Amino acid sequence: MDAICPEFIMFIFSLLSYLLLFLSGACAWSGKGLVRQPSLADTRASYNFLDDRYIMMIRIHLRLLLLLYLSGLGLVQLVTGQALQITTNNNATTLSESLEGAGVTIQNAIYTGPPNAVGLFENTSEDFPIQRGLVLTTGRATVAAGPNDIENATIDNTVRNLFGVPINTWPNAWAETTTGRESRDAAVLAFDVVPGGNRLKFRYVFASEEYREFVYSEFNDIFGLLISGPGIVGRQNLALVPGTSVPVTINTVNNGNDDILSIPSNPEFFIDNTPLDSPLREVTQYDGLTVLLEAEAEVQPCQTYRIELIVSDIGDPTLDSGVFLEAESFTSEENYALQVENALSEVDFAENCGDEQKIVLERTGDIDQPVTISWVVGGTATQGVDYTLGLSSPQLLPAGQAVIEIPVTILSDALVEGTETLEFDLFSSLCGSPILALKDTFRIRDFQPLVVTVPGEVTFCASAPTKTLTATASGAFGNYRFRWTGAPQGADLAITAPGTYTVAVRDSCPVGASSTEVVKTVSVSFVGTDGISSNDTTYTHCTLGAYSLQAPQVLGGGCGPMPISGRWAVPSCLRLFLR
Question: Which strands make up the sheet holding 349-350, listed edge to edge?
Fold first, then answer.
């Protein structure tokens, strides 16, 4: 008999393990009763704890185990095709540094909560407003990823002893005080932040499985962004419904509850993810979420503040909630501004356009103190090959000085590279050590040659009342200047006699230098009333203007007369087309 494959043994062993987990959970809850007695008879209904925690968990793990087994046999491949990719990570330093944006320094981070409830994510869907960041949940971080295909997604993170008695339910005192209910499965990331400016900002999305069935119930899951420090009394919550002092919870941002007579609360900030045609169903498991919200506070530059990010189940550990925190959106960058002097309309710089431009740096905040600034450049453009900077880093801005200019010379390398980028990271030492104060990206366009188009040879009917030559231009930098021989500036030239005419075309970039001049020559002749005027491939009889010849073509049978519509004849070696 063939040996049993190791993948099958691993599958059976894991299946037995989860069966034992199922039975132990049932025994652990037998003393409390398998069915919760809800305080809201018509809303929460009777939830079986096996359904809430164990059955859902077993469903998920059995599905994964089956995939692992089939993958081991080579029958299927495990792929991660979701728009939202989540990696579990509870390293507080890594998590907090992912949030660090321009103008702030983050340090002394601590994470408190279930180890699998937090992680980092990347998103490829344009329907979700955050591309990457940190996710903090009351369940398991990976459950937050779509598709939305599990009803009542729940992971109870309660820690129990060998007898099934809870020894840690992960409560949070602030969440309990704010909601007046028991806090469960709270995940908390705390850290110090030093802002370089006078305002601190942050962006996030709150989401939950509590939507929409348990809106206005006691199960009012909550997110808090607490700040404490100089100028702030106690701990202030910044995660508020826009324009109010109301915290962001299930009951304060929603579209109402379909099961009870209710009025939506701040529905303009809510997105329902339960409809089958919701574009976010493939992004997240949660049934509802807020739009992208921004928290902000007035702070004192260079002072240390304590931040606490808290998400918590309220009332019970059932039905997960989470908050998506945008990477690098913790910012305080109002003290500086960067702009390009004489920037082009579509890009900032371009090859063959001016000998020198300038990046102008301006301090927009307090200028009473001297500050040392420095910068680091990057992007697809290469310093010394595509551009040079006429000022070295670092530089001292004395007290009272608001502006410093950095000369930029764009080098023409005659290579087809497309639009390149010059990434400019500005650092300020106002608070002692350098802090990233501002990030900006400038665009450098390849040189595009000036192309001028005119007809090569033109024949006009002598009797025509108007005879005009027209030149067109494209490429380069626009703002074209046309000058025909012996005529005022303009793209059109009125013809009064046959001969050779020349047009010179130049363009002008905003910096003041011009690209190479392009000169074109046109030969002009006149014909009488029985002649045929021509302009490249268009031919017109001077008398019977209703007819035109296009694309002359040699036909069989020689070049004898060929009547057209019984009105006039031309050699049969030309084909006439009715206009």
Answer: 349-350, 435-445, 420-428, 371-378, 395-397
pLDDT 10s digits, 38-89: 444 344 444 433 344 444 444 445 544 544 444 444 333 333 447 999 999 9
Structure tokens at 423: 């990434």
Q: Which residues contact 80 (CB under 8 A, 6 or more apart)?
A: none
* pLDDT above 50 (res 577): no
Backbone angles phi, psi at 56, to 5 degrees: -65, -40
**What DSSP designation does 35 have?**
B
> Is the CB of residue 197 less than 8 Å from the CB of residue 333?
yes
199 prior amide bond cis, ω within 30: no
The residue among 341, 352, 340, 347 whose CA lies nearest residue 507 is 352
State the DSSP string of 62-79: HHHHHHHHHHHTTS----
Contact 154, 131 (CB under 8 A): no
Q: Where are the beta strands (DSSP E) in 113-152?
A: 118-123, 132-137
What ranges make up the beta strands (E) of 155-301? Answer: 159-160, 166-168, 183-195, 199-208, 222-229, 232-237, 270-272, 288-290, 293-298
Beta carbons of 361 and 352 less than 8 angstroms apart: no
Residue 144 backbone phi and psi in degrees, to 5: -65, -20
Instruction: Return the DSSP state at 145.
Output: B
Q: Which of 433, 275, 427, 415 lies closest to 351, judged by CA?
A: 415
What's the chain's Rg over C-alpha atoms? 36
State the pTM of this model: 0.66
Q: Name the pairing type of β-strands 435-445 and 349-350.
A: parallel
How many CB atoms lie under 10 A from the CB of residue 498? 16
Distances (CA, A) of 60 to 56, 159, 283, 339, 567: 6, 20, 18, 52, 85
DSSP per-residue codes, 5-66? PHHHHHHHHHHHHHHHHHHHHHHHHHTT-SB---S-TTTT---BHIIIIIIHHHHHHHHHHH
Tens-place pLDDT, residues 334-379: 678 888 876 665 678 888 776 678 899 998 877 888 889 999 999 9
3-state helix, strand, coil in the chain (%, to 5): 10, 40, 50
Whether omega before 129 lies within 30 degrees of 0, making that bond cis, reads no
Contact in structure between 460 and 533 (CB atoms under 8 Å): yes
Q: Quote the tokens at residue 107.
A: 């340090």
H or E, element range at 227: strand 222-229
Peptide bond into 147 cis (omega under 30): yes
Beta bridge partner(s), residue 91: none
Alpha helix ranges (H) inside 80-210: 92-99, 173-179
Q: How many residues does the chain have?
A: 579
Structure tokens that stand for 502 in this block = 């020349």
DSSP 269: G
Residue pair 329/203 in contact by the 8 Å Cβ criterion = yes
Nearest to 333 by CA among 202, 192, 191, 237: 202
Strand order across the 547-550 sheet: 481-484, 499-506, 518-527, 457-461, 532-535, 538-541, 547-550, 576-578
